[in-house]
Fold:
Amino acid sequence: MKHQKLYAALTIVITLVVTAFFLKEIRHNARMETDLDEYMPKTHPAFLYSDQAEEWFNIKDGILIALENKNGIYNPQTLQKIKDISKALQDMPQFEDNDVTSLYTADNITGSEYGLEVNSFYKRVPKSEEKLEELRVNVRGNDMAYGRVVSEDETVALVVAGMTDSLFTDTFYQEILSFANEYEGDGDKIYVAGRPIVEGTMGKLGPKDMKKMVPIVILVITLVLFLLLRSTRATITTLFTVFISTIWAFGLMAALGVPIFAVSTMIPVMLIAIGVAYGIYFYNHLKQYYRDKPETNSWNAVKHVLKVLWKPLMMAAFTTMIGFVSLITSQVFPIKYFGLFTAFGISIAFALTLIFIPATIVLFGYKARHGKINEDDKGYTKINHFTDRMLSNKKVIYITVAVLIVVSIFGTSKVWINSSFLSNFEKDSEIVLTDKFVNSKFGGTSTLNVVLESEESGVFKQPKTLELIDKMQAETVQLAKVGNSFSLADYLKRMNKVMNADDDAYYRIPESNEMVAQYLLLYEMSGDPENLAKVVNYDYNRTNITFQLKGDDSRTINEALTVIQKYEDQFSEQGIEMNYAGSGYKALVFTGLILDGQIKSIILSLLIVLALLSVMFRSFKAGLIGSLPIIITALISFGVMGLFNIPLSTTTALLSSIAIGIGIDYAIHFMQHYRTNIANMEHRHDAIHFTMKQTGKAILYNAIVVIAGFMVLLFSVFPPNRTLGALVSLNMFTSLAGTLTVMMILVYGAKLFMKKKLKK
Structure:
């Protein structure tokens, strides 16, 4: 026994040393990733092309600063703020002069006796009522400014600053907010929106959410564990194993340079909720052994439990890991890494259950507490009664399940995908309300870029091509969720109008190639050629059309693309290829990758689980019956999502893997014990009864702990996390119910594991 205690002490010391190493890695190397481009695969053709197009046309996600004055922006004070904000942003290293667009910096294209003049709307802030009114008239008559940098009700002015994502840091996020808010007051209200702000907000809330969630889940799990195990030492030891597994998971991420994404903040909740189940199984078997042999020493007790438990526990852990590892098929980095490191954490929780917990028992001992025998008998009577009722009412069970499956299939057909990053926030949160406000006043905070390419130089100087672009823009902006559009056609329409005495009848594409070429030459002589570089290349065989969208969700983007793609054949007839770029299109492709990864992970995990169960129990029939509860659970989950209009997102895409990974544990433990019992009993009726007594309670305890752990997600600041918590809790309940009803009935009826003819 002395040697055993030495080995136990050494095990504990090594575990603590490794834990200390990973804690150091977390402290020095852990980082939060908020750049949404980092969610996406760099090698995907759509992203490669988008990145190339962004470089061609200097396409950047913008920080939008809106100044609202309910009495109107045409006053010296507000106009001075617009100027000051614009100049201050231009002076920041994160922005270039041409990246800042506002009433102060925007081109005001006008005609003169000398040709075209391109100036800003104002250099000096107008003071007199006459000058202010002149500015108002100029803006109203300029479609390139009216409704774009000044709202149509003239109460809001917009400053847009495009920036490279790599330059946007958490520190700069705070700086830009503080900077903008300095201009608030004296009747002016400031709103800050745009994708970089969304990223910064996620980066700010993610760690806060994890700091809030972990203590809550620890408290809940501690209380539940103590109530179930009735042992302070067992509760602490079990919790310690999952804490260590969480530290190792995040420590490995930090050591490998893998960043923490928003979805990664749920890993601790996952590991705590799942990992404690192994401890429950261990201590339940230990308690049963001490009940039968109260005088045994801790070493013999541990050996017995490990002998009985290691195989079903290993299979349970392995299948759970498979559920999460299957997420590696996703091309979405947060989902892929979530699956990998959650699986790693589960493997550590399993290993510590078989190594660390026995070491603490050998070193410190274990005092089992037993309930009264009559209480146990009363509980067993209830279990027997439940089992008999299920077996005698199997037709009712089958019909109920069939109805649930039909309803779930119908609901599944209604599941939709949401790629909106704003859906991560509360509908009444400041960032969502700000986004809605800016969208209501201007074209939209999200963009979709359409890139047209041809091998023919000068093709985008041809009126027929420009007219087709203009026609496509005009039809697309009729959509409710599409605000403005901008292209070379808009420049030429403006130039044609001002060169014809500002006659609205000439707000159209010039009629001849020569006139188009002349206008462009005049602009290049009068204005800044770099502005044209945002919409067309030097050879005029590649052009960029920007659509502003009042939403970043897939439905909005698809609606716009439905109209845009109607023109694809017409452009193709002119030898022009249509492609897409920008954050809006990336979000749409991102949506497709989520769906593709979801389908692949479900199929892969189900096939692997089926194969493993079939091999483990040496029966394909057993594998199929064991897989049935999680198949039903997965169907019900998606059915509920469809019926309650819950979208598939980066967060809810984890649902199926969690459901399969955890839910299969119940089937494994039940079937493993049933196989053992039926081999040692004369009647299969006795075997099913004893299995329900033996494992039903442990499975129930497991489900209670997991449900309690995931219900904690209801306290998350991120709505998708709360949705996931509720859905996983539902999954665990359906998996529990499916195992102890449908699967139990099928196992009994199919006469599994019977090597000889037994009496009923």
Q: What stands out?
A: Confidence is low (pLDDT under 50) at residues 371-375, 756-760.
